[in-house]
Amino acid sequence: MTTGTLTIDLDALAGNWRALAQIAQVETAAVVKADGYGLGAERVAARLAREGARAFFVAVAEEGTALRRALGPGPTISVFSGHMEGDAERIASADLTPMINSIDQMLRHVEALPGHPFGLQLDTGMNRLGMEPAEWSALRDIALAQNPTLIMSHLACADEFAHPMNDQQRRAFDEMTAGIDVPRSLAATGGTLLGPDFHYDLVRPGVGLYGGLPYVDARPVVTLDIPVVQVRDVLPGETVGYANAWTAQRPSRVATISAGYADGLIRAMGGDARLHHGDIAVPVIGRVSMDLITVDVTDLRETPQSLQLIGLHQSVDTVAGFAGTIGYEILTSLGARYHRVWRD
Ligand SMILES: *Cc1c(COP(=O)(O)O)cnc(C)c1O
Q1: Is residue 19 part of a domain?
Q2: How many angstroms separate the alpha carbon of residue 95 from the centre of ligand 1?
Q3: Which of 15, 47, 227, 244 has the smallest count of CB within 10 Å of its CB?
Q4: Looking at the predicted structure, is the pLDDT value of residue 11 above 70?
Q5: Burial profile 204-222: b = 16 or more Cβ within 10 angstroms, e = fewer
Q6: Does the active-site annotation cover 328?
Q7: In testing the pocket of ligand 1, which one of 204, 207, 326 has its CB within 8 Å of the most ligand atoms?
Q8: Ligand 1 atom showing the smallest separation from residue 33 Cα
Q9: What is the CATH number for 230?
Q10: pTM of the model
Q11: Which range marks the domain in which residue 277 is found?
């Protein structure tokens, strides 16, 4: 085995879903877009369905088709991007529920698939997806007459618990949905943690299920172990890697491990990044290259067979910090070359 091994702890994932459901005390869906945040949408969703999840969300209809094959009939699969041109066949055959984002999408949907379930997405200030107040006023009565399954909106700043935007969007959502008797949803992971005012009838966590911030109490789900290809001794003054980016200051041992930026370990991670051998941290040295990374293992007593990048010692968000990005990006960049093991 020369590729890294990505171990996905489905028990921890299920535990995170149950814990978020316990916090929310309302129907708890699961967002499995981008192949379940890089961890395998079909395995993730199948496990959560076994755990009791009945509602799943994806970004685009194509993802819904694959997910329906894995889940079979029963659970709802909703599509954030709504009903796009050319989606009708997919929506009908995989029984997807588009979250309608505009009057155009609404017309497209009722013309192509009259009577087929749909939800509505409102913009409460993020200005990314959904109908704005004026558009919503124009469509509201017509849309409600068609029995939407859900009305949803999305928070822009929910990872900052004290941000005034949270209450501002909640009030806008209340105003836009006043007097409407349709299930409502505002919260993703961050909103679920903001408290009951944000829960409405359904919460839709994504990243928290996979062990990422802002869910600080999440159980870690991902472990990434990378095999060592070769270990060498270098003398003071010798350099390592492209552009001679690192120079040995002392007699050193350098391990070359089998993963690089082509595996989602983005090059910007360089400088600050560490891996672990048991409890001991060892620093990345030199440039991250496409398929390989060099690590200073001088301080280890033994020659390592593999080093761990993500695991109990170091979360997805810690690794994200090395590269100046967020856990979401590290997860969804995890490479296709890894050997994936799902622990169930
Ligand atoms: C991605 C997404 C979610 C899930 O967000 P997390 O922060 O990962 O919990 C929920 N709703 C919408 C509209 C999304 O785009």
Answers
A1: yes
A2: 21
A3: 244
A4: yes
A5: bbbbbbbbbbbbeebebbb
A6: no
A7: 204
A8: 1
A9: 2.40.37.10
A10: 0.96
A11: 222-343
